[in-house]
Specification:
The protein is 61% helix and 14% strand. With 192 residues, the chain is of the alpha/beta class. Helix 1 (14-25) packs across helix 10, helix 2 packs across helix 3 (45-56) and helix 6 (118-132) packs across helix 8. The chain binds adenosine monophosphate.
Length: 192
């Protein structure tokens, strides 16, 4: 099985391009953010606890997202691999992912980073807020905290995966969706 990580700050376009990548390489796209929003929509206890943290722009506990990821690995069949989007989000999740995969005799295949500037993060999220209606996109304070959380906790993963020889990235700061999709798919062709 292949285990790809689609990496990048909020608003970089991970969700926008994941479907095309997953289809091309027969992967199951797993977005921890989407799974958490589904829990909130279903009104589960987990969803209620996660909502406060998500609305503040903070991360939910590692154990919550890792449980979701392991369940997905255990239950999803009929694909050549997984495309992880929004996970791992900090160094302890990355180390735990390595352990989870090691138990299965597997490892992370490659990390594809989608890079944009902080100004572009704000611009893209502002546009998306109108279209998708996500509460955590609508407030400037939440968006600023998500940018802070990204730099403090998630960005260090770049060095972690570079050290493992598994990190590649593409600049998607400007350009139209189609143009960026072509760039992202070209990167996947190189690393797949
Ligand atoms: P996303 O859709 O990836 O932007 O995620 C939306 C929100 O869900 C994030 O701001 C976090 O609060 C939470 N979240 C998603 N993935 C994770 C993760 N791997 N670890 C912790 N929190 C997460």
């Amino acid at each position: 099985m292949k285990y790809y990580i689609l990496f990048g700050p909020p608003g970089a376009g991970k969700g926008t391009h994941a479907g095309a990548i997953a289809q091309k390489y027969n992967l199951k796209h797993i977005s921890t953010g989407e799974l958490l929003r589904a829990e909130i929509a279903a009104g589960t206890e987990l969803g209620k606890q996660a909502k406060t943290l998500i609305d503040a722009g903070s991360l939910v506990p590692d154990s919550v997202v890792e449980g979701m990821i392991e369940t997905a690995f255990d239950t999803i069949k009929g694909v050549d691999g997984f495309l992880l989007d929004g996970f791992p989000r900090n160094l302890s999740q990355a180390a735990d992912l390595d352990k989870i995969l090691e138990k299965r005799g597997e490892s992370v295949t490659a990390v594809a980073g989608l890079m944009i500037s902080d100004d572009m993060i704000r611009e893209r999220i502002k546009g998306r807020a109108v279209i998708e209606g996500r509460a955590d996109d609508a407030s400037d304070e939440t968006v600023n905290n998500r940018i802070k959380t990204y730099h403090a906790q998630t960005e260090p993963l770049i060095e972690y995966y570079k050290a493992a020889g598994k990190y590649w990235e593409v600049n998607v700061d400007g350009g139209e969706i189609a143009e960026n999709r072509a760039r992202v798919l070209a990167l996947m062709d190189k690393i797949a």
